[in-house]
Design brief:
Order of helices and strands: HHEEEHEHHEEEHEHEEEHHHHHHEHHHEH
Number of helices: 17
Distance between the termini: 122 Å
Bound molecules: adenosine-5'-diphosphate, magnesium ion
Structural class: alpha/beta
Strand order of the largest sheet: 1-11-10-9-12-13
CATH topology of one domain: Nucleotidyltransferase, domain 5
Largest sheet: 6 strands, mixed
Helix content: 40-55%
CATH architecture of one domain: 2-Layer Sandwich
Radius of gyration: 28 Å
CATH class of one domain: Alpha Beta
Strand content: 15-25%
Shape: elongated
CATH superfamily of one domain: ATPase, nucleotide binding domain
């Protein structure tokens, strides 16, 4: 009898343990199921808030067109500055002679010389040199920076061989691409509004940047005149038109984003000067600063903006450009880690660091076609310190990349459609219309590029989109600036 009791007690204890284990497993499974349900809900919300159906794309395009009109109407008429570039003569192909370009806009600057041979010869010869700017000069004095640039230019000129030829008695002429905000006052002068991109050079804000460069050239003993001061988008447009006469606009989709296009001079209501003979003027839209209530935004975007160096500004740029796409993805993944324990019980500390997830890494994960998503796994390990991610988690990461990239691409397409509408080139049976594109985001992020092109087709329709072409204008802004130096040369007869 006692034995029986003991046996019963043992059986009961074992059963109780089994029940407890089962309960634990059920709880854990529920918790895990709960996590995935939570993750699914976060993803669904993201998908809904980022949605860009055709109707939405059209609304954004219309808003862009409307702001373009407003910005041309008056100074401060719109968040789009619609800056008058003073470029009223675009390259025709007839340009001849030796011209130079200087491109300053990042940690490197580039000098370029081209020998132009008119319609037949085209670009007979070109040479380019890239020089990195010492860190201390980016935050030093104005003379130091411009002397450094001018002396690099002096060396470049000194190394010229017989492939390049300057006619006797003629001065060398330079196109200056200066990719910082400038208030242009003529084709060859403009005052610096502010430095950006890590530059903060003393005593230059409010000064004519061409004057600063010209004085440095004189100090270095170079006889050279700056005949065109341009923004990189305007340079890209000029280079694009030289290659293809049907180019109407240039778009940059790189770290940042911007657009320039050719406008009828009489449509620029705020223009005070005499109408140019050509009847045309290139407008630098500064479209990164576009915003509209039609733009689909999320709490991630609002937080990104609020914590940025320029809150409330460049809202469109923060949705579509290479500087920000990876950072938006990081913010979504962080929420998934916190609320749905997507990467385990602890939130990976690296995921909390702003801008650790850069767009090229996002792009590499997004393009992963391996069966087990091993690129996603490796990138998460290398850049976010997340090891042993589950397949389910990796798939979710790819979905987040997809939503964020496609929203950006479709909104960028909306901007282009806005320009085409402004030009009346969005309808069927139009003449061939070409957009010159530059920038690492468009060039390297294949899914982004394909989504942008598919959106143009979808929204414009088969027929109208057949006459719209997007061409890559790889670093066209350097050649473009030298072409603008040529088309605004002091030796041209008006
Ligand atoms: P910038 O705009 O700085 O003048 P680029 O036009 O070369 O220079 O663009 C560089 C930007 O392009 C990077 O900051 C990055 O956002 C984006 N980019 C570069 N490579 C890739 C890539 N493989 N995938 C996605 N984006 C990329
Ligand atoms: Mg660039």
């Amino acid at each position: 009898m006692r034995k029986v009791l003991i046996r019963t007690a043992v059986i009961c204890a074992t059963a109780a343990a089994a029940v407890a284990v089962t309960a634990f497993v059920v709880r854990r499974r529920r918790r895990i199921n709960g996590r995935w349900a939570r993750a699914g809900a976060v993803l669904k919300e993201l998908e809904e808030q980022c949605a860009t159906p055709v109707e939405k794309v059209k609304e954004v395009a219309d808003a862009m067109t409307k702001e373009m009109h407003a910005g041309l109407e008056s100074e401060d008429g719109s968040m789009l500055k619609m800056l008058i570039s003073f470029v009223d003569r675009l390259p025709t192909g007839d340009e001849r002679g030796l011209f130079y370009a200087l491109d300053l806009g990042g940690t490197n600057f580039r000098v370029l010389r081209v020998q132009l041979g008119g319609k037949e010869g085209r670009v007979v010869n070109q040479q380019c040199e890239e020089v990195s700017i010492p860190q201390d000069l980016m935050v030093g004095g104005s003379d130091e920076l411009f002397d450094f640039i001018a002396s690099a230019l002096a060396n470049f000129v000194a190394s010229e061989d017989e492939d390049f030829h300057l006619p006797n008695g003629k001065q060398r002429e330079l196109g200056f691409t200066f990719s910082f905000p400038v208030k242009q006052t003529s084709i060859a002068s403009g005052t610096l509004i502010k430095w950006t991109k890590g530059f903060n050079v003393n005593g230059t804000v409010g000064k004519d940047v061409v004057g600063e460069l010209t004085r440095a050239l004189q100090r270095q003993g170079i006889d050279m005149q700056v005949t065109a001061l341009v923004n990189d988008t305007v340079g890209t447009l000029a280079g694009g038109i030289y290659d293809d006469n049907d180019v109407v606009a240039a778009i940059i989709l790189g770290t940042g984003t911007n657009a320039a296009y050719v406008e009828r001079a009489d449509a620029i209501k705020k223009w005070q000067g005499p109408l140019p003979n050509s009847g045309e003027m290139v407008i630098n839209m500064e479209w990164g600063n576009f915003r509209s209530s039609y733009l689909p935004t999320t709490d991630y975007d609002h937080a990104l903006d609020a914590e940025s160096l320029n809150p409330g500004q460049q809202i469109y740029e923060k949705l579509i450009s290479g500087m920000y796409l990876g950072e938006i993805v990081r913010r979504v993944l962080l929420r998934l880690a916190v609320e749905a324990a997507l990467f385990g019980d602890n939130v990976p500390p690296q995921l909390e660091v702003p801008f650790v997830l850069q767009t090229p890494v996002m792009s590499a994960m997004h393009h992963d076609t391996s069966a087990d998503l091993k690129v996603v796994g490796a990138k998460m390990q290398d850049f976010l310190g997340i090891s042993n991610s589950s397949f389910k988690a990796r798939k979710l990461v790819v979905q987040v990349c997809d939503i964020v990239a496609k929203r950006g691409a479709r909104l960028a397409a909306a901007g282009i459609i806005g320009i085409l509408k402004k030009l009346g080139c969005d309808r069927p049976n139009m003449k061939r219309t070409v957009i010159a594109m530059d920038g690492g985001l468009y060039e390297h992020y294949t899914i982004f590029r394909e989504s942008l092109l598919a959106t143009l087709k979808e929204v414009l329709g088969e027929e109208a989109s057949a006459s719209v072409l997007v061409i890559m204008a790889n670093d066209g802004s350097g050649i473009g600036a030298s072409l603008l130096a040529a088309s605004h040369s002091q030796y041209l007869e008006d």
